[in-house]
Amino acid sequence: MGINRSRTGRRASGRTARPGRGASKAAPKTSAVALDPDRIDRTAGGRRVSLRTVVLVGLGILLAAMFAPSVNTGITQWQQISALERDIEATESEVEALQHKQEQLSDPDYLAARAREEQNYVKPGEELYIVIDDAEEDTAAEADADRTPRPVRAQPWYQELVDSLQAVGFATEETR
Which of 4, 43, 129, 153 is most exposed, with the fewest beta carbons within 10 Å of its own? Predict the structure, then answer.
């Protein structure tokens, strides 16, 4: 059994006084921990934070502070990558649509149909008739008639504004 020493190097006795060896029975019983100030550190209520713990916590905080910008940069880059992937998907779908359009334009039947529809082309021997619809012209004239006429100003708007401000400036309490 080894010698139990406290931080100060003195010998700490873990023994309490026994009732038959020099201690009177009238003396109140108290624990050795409560009487010995060196042993107070070993109880849960008297715990102190060691230098080692402080250094490790400080180092952890320092590392977290150092890596926080890197994590933020990583998150930002992840968002940018996601946006770029969406752009790539949109571009690929556009490329597919353009390839389909290119295939259609290489088809002579498709080109002939488009020329007939858009440019009013006809095949040799055919006659083209263009029908003018009078109903469209009538609806356009009715739309013009339904519009309310805009008032014509006698003077420019800024002159009217200046006149209005002058009129308000000359107003008195009696005329209001």
Answer: 129
